[in-house]
Design a protein that fits this description.
The chain is mainly alpha-helical. It is built from 8 helices and 4 strands; from the N terminus they run H-E-H-E-H-H-H-H-H-H-E-E. Helices cover about 55% and strands about 10% of the residues.
């Protein structure tokens, strides 16, 4: 199977199922049978690693190595090194200081962010924007692309994590900011986004503190 067909959700599902690391093998650059499959795989894995990092997980738990089908020795070398590296990191979440329940929430947020329409559109456009440019023929540098997609990925992940946490019960902005490890202003901005989308709103107020919850008849966030 071409590495370009590896989907970010497949990588996340491996982590959700209990894997401590994911290794993806790909053809060398310039040797892909489908022209640019390995380049698309590289971009997808890069974005997936960024989402993991935003969630507080070690991005080095996901790696991609390029080799030809005739380089069995190189595959063995890469696989052995990766196994050793993951062994040093230990079980997923432990070295990151993330408890089992928080880990479930974060992995689900990662999975839904990467499976959603916004980041799928982003992944489909990365190579195009770098190689061909936009509708006006304007090309983007790697630095520009990284900065743009880092912002999009971070916003999308935070939206997903908030929704995952609200599914467990009404919560305040202050509490969400604390458990997510982000400034309150970040949560406030994302709450405003969720309200505009009809996905969350203030459910009640306790001791002058608004508690947010999902909108019962809200549309599904795809």
């Amino acid at each position: 199977m071409c590495s370009g067909r590896v989907d970010p959700t497949q990588m996340l599902e491996a982590f959700v199922s209990g894997s401590d690391g994911v290794f993806v093998g790909a053809c060398k650059k310039g040797e892909c049978h489908y022209t640019s499959g390995n380049l698309h795989a590289e971009r997808k894995i890069d974005l997936t690693r960024r989402i993991l990092a935003i969630a507080g997980l070690r991005p080095e738990r996901l790696v991609m190595r390029m080799m030809s089908s005739a380089e069995g020795n190189k595959f063995a070398e890469y696989a052995t090194a990766f196994q050793a590296a993951v062994g040093e990191l230990g079980p997923l979440g432990r070295s990151e200081g993330i408890g089992p329940e928080d880990l479930k929430v974060k992995l689900q947020a990662c999975l839904k962010a990467l499976g959603g329409r916004k980041l799928r559109w982003v992944m489909g456009k990365i190579v195009e924007f770098v190689e061909d440019g936009n509708l006006y023929g304007e090309r983007f540098t790697e630095h520009e692309i990284r900065r743009l997609f880092d912002e999009i990925a971070m916003d999308e992940y935070h939206l997903r994590e908030i929704l995952e946490r609200l599914a467990g019960g009404s919560q305040s902005v202050k509490h969400l900011a604390s458990v997510m490890g982000v400034p309150s202003r970040t949560v406030v901005r994302r709450m405003a986004d969720l309200r505009k989308m009809g996905l969350a709103d203030v459910a009640t107020i306790e001791k002058d503190t608004p508690l947010w919850a999902p909108v019962a008849d809200g549309v599904a966030y795809e």
